[in-house]
Write a structure and sequence with these properties.
Layout: E1 2-7, E2 10-13, E3 18-26, E4 33-39, E5 46-52, E6 58-60, E7 68-73, E8 78-83, E9 92-99, E10 105-108, E11 112-117
Parallel strand pairs: 2-11
Antiparallel strand pairs: 1-3, 3-8, 4-5, 4-9, 5-6, 7-8, 9-10, 9-11
Length: 118
């Protein structure tokens, strides 16, 4: 099992930036990919971005493409989500998750709140 702790959320004005961090511990050697998801109040959780842990290949949801950047530091077992040009509709609780094999995100963090004011 991998333990995940997110940080970096907060309140920001529209057009601003935030950088989320995700610290992985435990069986971090088993990470195949790390992803960020978000869940707005009253809505279902949605995929934001993922990164392959070894290759660094990335994939983004259309809603954040060109504004968000996912990255990782393997040596530090850290993942990041740089969020620029934030919009009010980006307001949500953001979760990081890891998969030990393709498509199966079995470890989740507790989430961090991001609020974008208009």
């Amino acid at each position: 099992q991998v333990q995940l702790v997110e940080s970096g959320g907060g309140l920001v004005q529209a057009g601003g930036s935030l950088r989320l961090s995700c610290a992985a511990s435990g069986r971090s050697f088993s990470i195949y990919s790390m992803a960020w998801f978000r869940q707005a109040a009253g809505k279902e959780r949605e995929f934001v971005a993922h990164i392959r842990w070894i290759s660094g290949n990335t994939y983004y949801a259309d809603s954040v493409k060109g504004r968000f950047t996912i990255s990782r530091d393997n040596a530090k077992n850290m993942g990041y989500l740089q969020m620029d040009s934030l919009k009010p509709e980006d307001t949500a609780v953001y979760y990081c998750a890891t998969a030990s094999r393709p498509g199966t995100y079995g470890s989740w963090g507790q989430g961090t709140q991001v609020t974008v004011s208009s």
